[in-house]
Write a structure and sequence with these properties.
- By secondary structure, the chain is mainly α.
- It has a domain at 20-55.
- It is built from one helix and no strands.
- The longest helix has 23 residues, at 23-45.
- The protein starts with 22 loop residues before the first helix and ends in a 10-residue tail after the last helix.
Length: 55
Amino acid sequence: MDKIPLEMSGEESPIKFRDCFSVRYIQSAALLCRLGFFIEKEYRAAEDVPPEILL
């Protein structure tokens, strides 16, 4: 059992391919988080927003 789980072949692999996250999905989620943070930051920086809306 000196192999990394993803390097194992056949039925001995404890990690199934469908259980692994795609890099594309992770990158998309990271991009959406960054964009959402930027939108919130710009929204909160606006001076004419009433405080009750910021809740």
